[in-house]
Amino acid sequence: MGGVALLARGDPDFSPQLLWAFAALLAFNLGYHVLLRRRGDEWTIPLISMAVNMTLVTAVLSLSGGQDSPFWPMYFLPIFTACLYLDARHVAFAAAASIAFLGCLYLGAPAQTPLWAFAEFALKAAVLAFSGGVTAAHAFRERRASRELASVRGELDALAASLERLEQARLEAGGGLPRLLSGLIYDLNGRVALIRGRAELLAATLEESAPQAEDARAVAESARALGRFGSDLLRVLRRAAEEAGDCEVGPLLEQVLGLVEHRLRPRGLRLERRIEADLPAARVGAPHLQQALLDLLDAAVDACRREGTITASIERGEDELSLRLAFEAPDGYAPDAPSAQRRLLEPFGASVEALGMGRSCAYAIRLPLGAGRGVRR
Q1: Is 357 helix (H, G, I), strand (E, B) or coil?
Q2: I want to staple 362 with a disulfide (CB 3.0 to 4.6 A). Which of 44, 202, 326, 347 is the partner?
Q3: pLDDT digit string (tens) for 87-119?
Q4: What is the pLDDT of residues 1-32, one digit of tens each?
């Protein structure tokens, strides 16, 4: 206000009412941010702010020289309001209305050099339109990222509440602590894998330095740590003979592949399935096999070269099922030894090993057939 008063002092183009117009502009925006925004994110409130600001800015320009006013960039105020709180059609309307109001100031003033006045107006209009488009693109992307992060946080809260209810129900139903924990971790790992995948996909679509990308990476890392905790907990559970049951490996593998498939798109990876029909069941704990598959698929995705292929296959042997996760790795890569997954499955008579030859790498799991060794129809 002091700067405006200094500029208006002794300048015949500046009306004495200019300071009142600035005072009204400042008072309205203060009231908007302190009082009106408390009513929530209703679209009508930002729309009213945009309209009032556009009117007050036009008054400021009229009282400070009209088409020659140095305050014409203040039309960015209603345009940026639309970018931050409204959608694309409102941004376009704000930019068009600001340009129209500015054009009226040029039409209402005596034009001594019409061509120069038109060029000056066209340049200012282009600046307003370009700035509005660029600001809208960045603002919409940030708002979309914020909504997706809020959705991920909501899913985490819902997951925690669901697990708490599930734990209480299982405790009431009984069945022993090892079986209870195995079931809990089975449910937990599937949902955590979804949250982690969404967070990683979101982080890959944002600029690395963006605050939302940092939040997404933190959510993904937290989900990864939670998955590791579940894996460690499974390893210390007693694996009594009654825990092993007939497990349909084909549907279980399809479920696990569905949990991690969306992680492949940002890296351009392809997923192929080669699962024989009418496979018999294997005798293995389903939660332990799911955890082992999730861990091995994570290792395969991290090691697979970009735009490579990951192949999941199941074949029936004479007295076992052979499950293989094959992937294309960079030259000279040696796959990690699956020691943790081996400890998960060996109590059931299964085996896990890593195979590597040039770019062709694979994790192979051999599972004993279940009690019903015949082919299921």
Answers
A1: strand
A2: 326
A3: 888 888 888 888 888 887 777 655 556 777 778
A4: 566 556 555 555 555 666 667 677 677 666 66
Kindly state which CATH superfamily the domain 246-377 is placed in.
Answer: Histidine kinase-like ATPase, C-terminal domain (3.30.565.10)
Angle at 154 between CA 188 and CA 32, to 5 degrees: 170
* Spatial separation of the C-alpha atoms in residues 352 and 329, rounded to whole Å: 19
Number of H helices, E strands in the chain: 11, 7
Q: Are strands 309-316 and 282-284 parallel, antiparallel or unpaired?
A: unpaired
Rounded Cα gap, residues 256 and 273, in angstroms: 12
Whether 94 contacts 81, CB under 8 Å: yes
Paired with 274 in beta bridges are 313
- Which residues, 6 or more positions from 9, have their beta carbon under 8 angstroms from its beta carbon? none
Q: To the nearest 5 percent, what fractions of the chain are helix, strand and coil? A: 65, 10, 20
Give the C-alpha separation, 94 to 79, whole Å: 5
Query: What length does the chain have?
Result: 377
User: CA 323: distance to chain centroid?
Assistant: 32
Backbone φ and ψ for 186, nearest 5 degrees, come out as -60, -45
- Using CA atoms in the order 41, 45, 47, 49, what is the torsion angle rounded to 10 degrees? -120
φ/ψ region of 148 (left if φ > 0, alpha if ψ in -120 to 50, else beta) reads: alpha
The strand ranges marked E within the chain are 245-247, 270-275, 282-284, 309-316, 320-328, 351-357, 360-368
pTM above 0.85, yes or no: no
Do 197 and 306 touch, CB atoms closer than 8 A? no
